[in-house]
Write a structure and sequence with these properties.
The chain has one helix at about 5-30, and strands spanning about 35-45, 55-65, 70, 80-85, 90, 105-110, 120-125, 135-140, 150-155, 165, 170-175, 175-180. By secondary structure, the protein is mainly β. It has one domain (about 35-180): PLAT/LH2 domain (Lipoxygenase-1). The strands form three sheets. The protein has a six-stranded antiparallel β-sheet with strand order 5-4-6-1-8-9, with no helix packed on it. A four-stranded antiparallel β-sheet has the order 3-2-7-10, with no helix packed on it. The protein starts with 6 loop residues before the first helix and ends in a 9-residue tail after the last strand. InterPro entries: Embryo-specific_ATS3, PLAT/LH2_dom_sf. Keywords: Signal.
Length: about 190
Amino acid sequence: MEKICGGPCFLYFTLLLLLPLLLTAEQIFPSQIKKNCTYVITIETTCMVGAETSNRVSLRFGDTNSNEIVVRHLNTKLLRKVDPLQSEVVDVNMARRPFQACMVDQFVVTAPCVDSSICRLYLKMIGSDEWRPGFAQVRVLGASSHLSSGFFHFRRFMPRYVWHGADVCDREVTPFGLSNKTNVYVKIP
């Protein structure tokens, strides 16, 4: 038997077969890598007696596409305190403990970017004292600022060790105002 093509032909045919796979991989992998965005989280603590906390507070927020971002130990990411009545930054030489009564705290977090508007936000408190947040908001800095959330209002003492917040992703406008869409689950026998 005569050898028609040796090692170079085998290499050539192997490359021809693998080339479509390599080109497809180049198209898939860059889209799977999410870039990071910078988020400014604003949380108000109400002025009620006993509203402040030194507990650990975590935050979870997400968008309509089920992208979830969890920020553990938010206390360690304090950017600044803002006077809620005058909207100016309080003296930076003050003690930097967040979640004091009648204060608005801002935190900066870098995390993967969301794909659509932020529409769910939950807070979780771990510790023994009480805390009564007023509102929370997540702003996306940069070109994606249109994905920032609205205000999530709490105005009650937080339960401990559980996520507590709101999911307003599935709202619809009706003649009677805003309404949450209800999921109807049918039990299949």
